[in-house]
Request: fold
Amino acid sequence: MRGLSQRVKSMKPSATVAVNAKALELKRKGVDLVALTAGEPDFDTPEHVKEAARRALAQGKTKYAPPAGIPELREALAEKFRRENGLEVTPEETLVTVGGKQALFNLFQAILDPGDEVLVLSPYWVSYPEMVRFAGGVPVEVPTLPEEGFIPDPDRVRRAITGRTKALVVNSPNNPTGAVYPEEVLKALAELALEHDFYLVSDEIYEHLIYEGTHFSPGTLAPEHTITVNGAAKAFAMTGWRIGYACGPKAVIKAMADVSSQSTTSPDTIAQWATLEALTNREASRAFIAMAKEAYRKRRDLLLEGLSRLGLKAVRPSGAFYVLMDTSPFAPSEVEAAEKLLQAGVAVVPGTDFAAFGHVRLSYATSEENLKKALERFAQALQ
Reply:
């Protein structure tokens, strides 16, 4: 009778988490390694956010919070979604979670029955298909192509729709490609959700990290079909604080909160008060985001120029802080290429679990010094 469930045994661990952990362990052992693996800002959390956490501690705000989040933060989220995304939502249509990942996990648990299909645009963040499978659903890959800038083709998406399609996952700016989807493409995808009556899951965690183009939230076009997911991690350098948030139809949001009530109970209370400060102290937060975005822009350009000098191909990303690099000059497969680069002293993430075959993901959320060192080691590996 003893043993593990088939559900857990069939789930693959997160490749990005595993590779980053391996890189950190090698560095702890004294290995001279440049890690381009982490999907997190290298900046410290802004001081005004940390000070809000200190105030919350001093004021004894350390008790359980409601499963959907403290009311003050939900009110601020409703205002944020209205002001920044054009989404007319009430506080009751918002939810606070333990990171954006839990918002997505709860959502798939709330909407999927066994056999329901979820369209996932590839390359994709590694956790989307695994979360869908864990909820009993079936992920259906719809490819985006490097020669098209990794921008989705709505006609290709339409051809993948069946009578079992329950949702489409959209991630713009995108991890791992850095693509920013044009407004007309997102509108076309929202129209497909309306036409075929399925959910549109819009992961907008990188919305503030756009270097060319503008951000558009498709929920403005299909509010009753769209669940918008976001979080404090990327914009405010709060990855370890584990605060995500979402908005959408009230019934779906309540169901997601019910999942939280039987799992995590609620996100960390102190971190919620800190996030409230990040959202409401707009002047300080805007200044931090502007500083970080300009640094990422410079790093992106440095990395792309260096890759080009070496004859290495990569589609120019317009957002987030990732570059997908073609690995064919290094090795026949992306896994072999990643191993070769690791031997050269650079840790990267193979594109395998992103469905980005023949590529590795490079994160430029690191210093310019590290990027220059990585480029030097790329040159050595090519020789």
The two ends are 55 Å apart (CA to CA). The mean pLDDT is 96. Residues 282-309 form the longest helix (28 residues).
